[in-house]
Specification:
This protein is an alpha/beta fold. About 30% of the residues lie in helices and about 20% in strands. Helix 2 packs parallel to helix 3 and helix 5 runs parallel beside helix 6.
Length: about 180
């Protein structure tokens, strides 16, 4: 997490879904206590019950909740927490200026989406592109799709669930450099 902040990431995600990356809300709160206020802390969930969400909200207090779009219908969301609904490839997000995540069918598996289709969708809202992005292709993805932002997880790991400082730095540097060329 500190490596992402040091590299210049705009947001850092903490996974509270069934995954090798899963973290307890209290642990996430402890390790994110020093995250500067300009870096958003994102609770990443997948089909949480309202009880699970409330536990994360109470113990971690994220800036943003990222979960499948349909999940928000059953969650009690305070106005203080931004919503980043996840839309999976094949499902078009509604036209809105709301920030949302667009990714493949399975989260956290490095599954790329069709960038040309994503580019069409990105014109209609604040898309964060996810899935299959790495330091060696993020510049091309940004040039093709022109997303609001990009998301990475497995491509900055040396093993499942083990983040690699060098890979994080390379990814963020490549993404920031590509952003400047737009």
């Amino acid at each position: 997490m500190q490596a992402a902040v040091a590299a210049g990431a705009d947001a850092v995600g903490f996974v509270f879904a069934d995954s090798v990356r899963r973290i307890a809300p209290t642990e996430a709160a402890t390790i994110s206590a020093d995250v500067p206020s300009h870096v958003k802390r994102v609770a990443v969930m997948l089909h949480p019950t309202n009880e699970e969400w409330q536990d994360v909200l109470r113990k971690f207090a994220p800036d943003i909740l990222q979960t499948d779009a349909a999940d928000f219908a059953t969650l009690d969301m305070p106005d203080s927490v931004e919503q980043w609904p996840v839309y999976r490839e094949g499902h078009t997000p509604p036209e809105s200026r709301q920030t949302y995540l667009y990714e493949g069918q399975k989260s956290g598996h490095g599954e790329p989406v069709d960038w040309l289709r994503a580019a069409d969708i990105a014109r209609k809202g604040n898309m964060i592109l996810a899935g299959g992005l790495a330091a060696d292709n993020v510049a091309e993805a940004i040039a093709t799709v022109r997303p609001f932002g990009v998301d990475v997880s497995s491509a900055v790991e040396s093993a499942p669930g083990q983040k690699n400082v060098r890979l994080i730095d390379k990814f963020v540097s490549a993404a920031k450099a590509a952003e400047k060329t737009l």
